[in-house]
Amino acid sequence: MSAILNTSALCKSFGGVTATDNVSLEVEAGELHAIIGPNGAGKTTLISQLSGALRPDSGVIEFKGQDITTQPAHKRARLGITRSFQITSLVMGMSVLDNVALAVQARDGHSFRFIKPARKIRHLRDAAMQSLAHVGLDARADTATSALSHGEHRQMEIAIALASGADLMLLDEPMAGLGPEESNTLVSFLKTLKGQRTILLIEHDMDAVFALADRISVLVYGRIIATGTPGEIRNNADVRHAYLGEE
Amino acid sequence: MGKLTRTGFITVLVMVALAVLPPMFLWSGQAFYMDLATRLVILAIAAVSLNLILGFGGLVSFGHAAFIGLGAYAAGIPSYHATWGGFEAIATYNGLFQIALAVGISALYALVTGAIALRTKGVYFIMITMAFGQMAYYFFLSLDIYGGDDGLTIDVRSELPGINLDNPLSLYLLAYVSLVVAMVIKFLIVNSRFGMVLQGAKGNPERMVTLGYNIYLYRLVAYVISGAMAGYAGFLLGNFTTFISPDMLDWTRSGELMFMVILGGAATIVGPVLGASVFILLEEILSSYTIFWQLPFGLMLIGVVLFIRGGLMGFFKGKGD
Ligand SMILES: Nc1ncnc2c1ncn2[C@@H]1O[C@H](COP(=O)(O)OP(=O)(O)OP(=O)(O)O)[C@@H](O)[C@H]1O
Ligand SMILES: [Mg+2]
Fold first, then answer.
1. Atom of ligand 1 nearest to the CA of A173
2. Partners of residue A33 on adjacent β-strands
3. pTM of this structure
4. Residue A4 belongs to domain spanning
């Protein structure tokens, strides 16, 4: 397999806090790569640097062999990177379907089109409906986004990531705040995506991580202390000591 | 659908009233009300244009009067030189030329100032658009040749094929049709793919960037369209008042436009028209009762803005979305 995403010696600090400390990470095309680590380890900060929301202080990010370290976020999205947000980030004033359709529209060429009503463009609506159906939200398509529950918002985040058609999906704790049943549904859904999309998954739910991941990297205080298969990580002494909570 | 119909009903009501009432006033010998209606409709065009960026783009632009002023001077200056000589390149009474100039200059000013202002956010955006507005104000204030502070009287109105702007009814009908066209254009834009991106960027810029939209560019294009439309309104206003002065560009004028939009209901098509109507009528009524009308007027406006979410349209539409 070949790496779709590569970071080398990535560093980022906020004032005195080193949130990303010399991170070199390789994500292979088609794999589901999980990142685990305690609260404040720098997981979200890492994702933000990959998506372009934050600039690293130093280091290099390569995507599909291209140096994207200084590319703005919207250009990275066009290259095929999308992210979901740990704290739900949707257009609350729009309908559920409008939100997802905007993701489809984004990869449909530029949107400097001023006359034809966007809501009458079949292929945008159909593709958006399909993504909503995948996460079981199709019945809610015409509802105002602000009227949905927290769990449904989380599902929308996934539907949007899906609809964007990105090759690399950066998912920041997609299960946060979901009930056990909803979590299970999402885990089985992510399983069906395996092999089709490359996924970098941040998750606190260890059962989900070990059920899904091809490889796991462990981040502690901004550093990657181990990378390996679920089996290797489970048996890694440093990880057990630093993170999995065994003294 | 019920809500949609109600918005549609108000739209039709307002537009029919504006089509029918002013000519009736004219025919019954009350030319004064015709004048009032003409000013109202022209300012409504400007409010509609402002609402594209304010209501649908979430960009609180506090310098919109500058575009009106540019448009008015684009009618007045060529006419001035056609009468008094000089500046041959633009000296003309030709209204089509003046419209092209008004729209072109306003669009250019929007492009240049927008390119800078849109790099800022929130309060800074408000302040910088206001500063650019004041810049245009002081520019015309310093142009002594066009009267400076004293303003410029337009001796000859623009000449348009088939329309005599000296005839109050013709001028009104042109303004009214222009307003309808402006509303249709905005309706199309707002519901287009471009409009969806613009509204998405208002609701959640971070999300739109993550999806791959260069929201800066989309906003800039909206800003230019909005400025050009307001410039056209300025062309009409200059022809209506036949007197233009830097006062038209003052920041308080920009504030009034914002009030009209918010009062009527931002993010609706007819809201700014309703807002402009109520604003102009109230101003007229209150000022005829007391010279201290500005205080109660201001308080009333603030009351509406604070207590009726979504402005008058929000009130009429009732609860919910
Ligand atoms: N914008 C910021 N300004 C200052 N400090 C920040 C900022 N963002 C993150 N930090 C700090 O950087 C460190 C890493 O934060 P980050 O959010 O990346 O952790 P995380 O691993 O995602 O945590 P969690 O599991 O709680 O989501 C924390 O100490 C945090 O306080
Ligand atoms: Mg986090």
1. 27
2. A200, A215
3. 0.94
4. 1-80+167-247
